[in-house]
Hints:
The chain is α/β, with parallel strands linked by helices. Among the domains are: 113-299, Nucleotidyltransferase, domain 5; 307-370. It is 48% helix and 10% strand. It has helices spanning 6-30, 32-40, 76-90, 94-101, 179-182, 197-208, 218-225, 254-262, 273-286, 288-299, 307-348, 350-370, and strands at residues 118-119, 128-138, 145-155, 160-165, 212-215, 234-236. β5 (212-215), α7 and β6 (234-236) form a beta-alpha-beta unit. 23% of the residues are buried.
Amino acid sequence: MPGLDLSLVSSNWKILQGRLNAGKKAEAQSDGVKRKRAEEKKAFTGFKKTKLSGTNTDTLGKRRKMGNGESKPAGNGSATHDRARLVREHGIAPEDVSAAYGSSAGSIRRQDDEINGGLHPTHKAGKYIALDCEMVGTGPPPHSDNVLARASIVNFHGEQIYDAYVLPPKGVRVEDYRTHVSGIKPSHLAEGYARPFAQVQRDVAELLKDRILVGHALRNDLQALLLSHSKRDLRDTSRHPKFRIDSKGKPPALRNLTKSELGITIQTGEHSSIEDARAAMMLFKKEKAGFEDENRRQFGQHRRFDKDAVKAQAKQAAGDDDEVEHDEDEDEEDDMELLDGEDDGLEGGAEGNAGSKAAGLKAKKKRKKKKRTKRT
């Protein structure tokens, strides 16, 4: 019997071993326990992140870290929404909102503002006007004495009515221009550019006559102008109860009030009395009904009389008195005629008596018809 070919056996053994090894790998892959053990050998890479949702999550499901990073500025869509909200919820005229926002949100300037233009030639004042003033410091350090440096007035629609820089009184030296706050520079108070205090005071007093004055902390502005105004005709945004809620009863700053109530940023640098007056008017317009209700509760219903109508009524009453006196004279003449008729009746007998009675009744009816009461 021939022996086995060792080379052939060796080759078959290798093939068998290869098949066995392939079967073991397939078995290992189908066994869940062995796969788990194999995965455990891999390095730990951390817990799996879960997708989050909510107000602090962006579109990719990543939670934003609070306090880190900068918030994105509102785009044109947000500004448009704010403008629509002011018109819809607060009743502010669209043209006022557009002029207040300007080309970018947060601006309250207008292109037609005429700095130091005095009394505007075309804009009308109307029933409501808003006033704001800028002051400079005088006196010994810390120069806390205030002197009027600028006065500005806008109407109900925010249009500029008056703006003027004011010369300091003679003998008074400005020690602190407060430029970083007031915006006043020495060139603004130069001779030939600024107006005398007496002229500005006279112009403002004329505008205040028979009008309702709106403003923020109006006491300071009127004190700088050395003017007074009826408390019934004042609408001070720093004293309105609703505007004092966030400040816990204290007078709020105009900058904070404009930001919280209107969403508009003012006074980021040098102040402008025109912009501050316009902001106060916009705040008043937003809560106009509340201002008027508070005014009625404090002062009662106010009735304004037309002087011409009162004079016409007095003249008419005087004419009625003359007419009543004239009618009384006619009544006296009728009485005299009646007496004459009675005398004739006595002489004429029975016919005279009958005629006198008829004449008497006729005269009596005539007197009742003409009788009038005097007006008080």
